[in-house]
Each structure stands twice: as structure tokens, then as C-alpha cells.
Amino acid sequence: MGADHSDTNEMKTQQQYQMFLLQYSKEREYDHNQFGQVKLYNHNQNNSMICIKKLQSKSDTELTQITNHLRKRKIFVHPNLVQLLAVRTCNEQSICSDSSLVMVVSEYFPDTLESELKKRKQPLKKYPESHIWLLIQQIVDPMAFLEEQKQAHGDIQPQNIYLDENGSVKLAEYNYFPGGQHGFQKMLLSKDRAYLSPILLNNYRNMNFKAQHNEYKSDVFSFGMTMLEVLLLEESYDCMDFQNGCISQNVVDQKLQKVKRSGYSQLLTNFVRELLQIEENARPSWNDLKQVIDQFRDKICNLIPFFQEKRQMSPNKLVYSQSYVPQQQILSSPQSKILSSPRQPQVLYQTYHQPQPLYQTKQMQPIPMQQSIYYESGQKQVPIKKITKLDETVSKQVQQPESNLEKTTIKQAETK
């Protein structure tokens, strides 16, 4: 009786799985730089994509570890994280042994920040600063969420920052699929390059596979290197002295000066400088960064400039709301401070007087990033490809007068 019931459930699961796959077509194998070997599928109607990863377990213990990992990851719901859609387990019997096959269905986004940067390099079209802050917000939010879940990313770099059809950021940590390797491991095995923190770079030189480091602070440094690449549209590997196993501070300082000369604000320049502190303990945590972003969140999400320096306050003053007390190491940093904005966003202080729970970020409606839509031509935004209804909304948001602090969502903009 029990066996019959089990067989019925298995058949029902198999039918559901097959019905799900009927919605997709154009199956193909792909060796993904982060996910490894996967099968890619396109939706028959909306052209969205999924990938299916096969994981094979050779024992009940291994199967339990895999399913527990996937069960835990499935509850990591955040608008800027890649989501698991389904997990299916089936038994495989062979002459030599019994094993279990786990089929994992996941969201898949073919576009990456790396591909967007390539488009902007020839010819050179740097990002407007309002788009830079939106990118920062969409990376800091999910990383703060992951840190709260005791999960590091492990390999932040442009090729691992995915973009959905609207241009919004999607992240997947190094072990999104069980068995994944972080950037340091890939470097040691000569599989790929990675933006390593100073501690990891020194361990890489010595080929030490058991590096002792704060993995969240290492992610923050990788984020800083990534932002340097985004701001200057050039790779940041020249900051890494592989022969001596250290970060070249002179090269980092030169790049930060170049960022400032490129027209970006002192606020943004110093924000990136904090990410690139050589001493691990001097770097802010993801939660520290999120609380800085919270002060300007409404303006960032609506692409309203807040970073002009016409009335710059004292460089010795840090920006923080009443609910945010920066860590002492940030306050005592001798090289830089995160400068105050020229205009104090009083409305935002009222909005974020109490820290916002991370899971509530999905209730916000940020304007999706449109990196490849516009380039700067004097003071005018010039479209370089067909403008959609969504693009028009973003263009209107960019052109809003700075005095208008009213937050306008996409839906509200479309009804006006």
C-alpha cells in the first residue's frame, strides 16, 4: 500500500515537472562561469529564461546535505537575488550502485554588468552618477541580506552581477548550487580571475588554500574593485600586485583621483575609498553600507541627484541618520570620510528614522537600471536604441527638478 502511494506521488511529480518544461523550448547545454554545466531554456511566450542544474548524490548523507542546502537557499527571497524555482529528486539505479539525481530549476539572466561595460567602452560612455548610486543600492541591499543570513557571496565582479530584462541587478552567491567555488578557489586552481582582498591576495601568492579572513569584508573589497571598474570603464587588476601578493595603494589612489577628475562627486569617491581600505577591520560591513544608502534611498530609487557639492559641508562630518551609529573604525579612518551631502535630505530622515528590515526591500519599487539606454550629450539624454514605455519613465525621472522630493513609482508615472 505504501509503495503504491509512493509511486503515485512520484508519477504526479513527474507529470508536473514535464508540464512545467512544456512552457519552454530551445534547450541547450552551457558551461556557465559561475554555475558550471547547466541546460538553458527559453519561455515560449515571454522569452524569459531558466536553467536546470543536475546534481548527483552517491549516498543518503550526500543527498541530505544537498537537499538541506537547497531548502535553505529557497527561502532567501529578495528582489535582487536569483531565485530557485523548483527542486526535484529521482532515483537512478545502475548495475554498480544506486544514486540519486537532483534536478534544480533556477531563474537565469544572460545579461551581466560585464556585458554592459563592454558596450560603454567603445565608444567611451560613462555612467551618470545617479545610475551609479542605483547600482550601488541594488548590490548593497542583497549583500546586507546575505550577511544577515550568514552567507557570503565569494566572487563579486562584473561577470557575476546579472541584469534582468528591466536592467535590475540579480546576484547569486558562489555556492548557489551546492559544490560551487568562490573566486579565491578558482584563482588557486587557475580557473578564473577574481578581485581578491589584500589578505586573500597574499594567501594566493603563497598558495595557501586555508586563508583566514572575514569573508564579508573580503566581499566588500571586491565590491570596491568592481565599482572602480564601473566608474572608469577599465579593469582593476592593475591594482593587484600578484608577484608581491599585495594591493598597490598608489595605483588605487591614482584611480580614485581619476574618478574625481571624471566629474563624479567627492561623496561617491570617498564612498568607494572606504570599500578599498587595506586593513580588513577598517572596511565597513554590508549593514553599515546599507544604513548609509538608507539616508538617500528615495532619491536614489527615483534617480534624483543628491550628491552635488555646491554647498559641501565640512569633510570631517559623516553622513548618518539618528538611527545609524557608524563603526569606530570608519570614524577613525585617517585617509577619508564619507562626506555629507550638500543638501540635507530631511524627508529621508523622517522616512528612515527607524532601520528598515531587510526583507521589506521587496516592497519598494525602484526604477530599474537602464545602463545601455542612454549616454550623456551635454545636458541632454540622447537615446541610443528604441525607447520603450519603461525607458520613457526612467528618462522622466532623470529630468525631474531636484527640489521635487515626492517619490514617483513606475506605476504612478505611467498613469500620469
Automatic annotation (TrEMBL):
Xref: Gene3D superfamilies: Phosphorylase Kinase, domain 1 (3.30.200.20), Transferase(Phosphotransferase) domain 1 (1.10.510.10)
Compositional bias of kind Basic and acidic residues: 404-416
PROSITE patterns tied to this protein: PROTEIN_KINASE_DOM (PS50011)
Name of a matching Pfam family: Pkinase
Disordered: annotated span: 393-416
Location of the Protein kinase domain: 24-307
SUPFAM superfamilies: Protein kinase-like (PK-like)
A GO term, aspect molecular function: protein serine/threonine kinase activity
Segments crossing the lipid bilayer: none
InterPro entries: Kinase-like_dom_sf, Prot_kinase_dom, TF_kinase-domain_protein
Gene Ontology CC entries for this record: nucleus
PANTHER family linked to this entry: SI:DKEY-192D15.2, SI:DKEY-192D15.2-RELATED
Protein known as: Protein kinase domain-containing protein
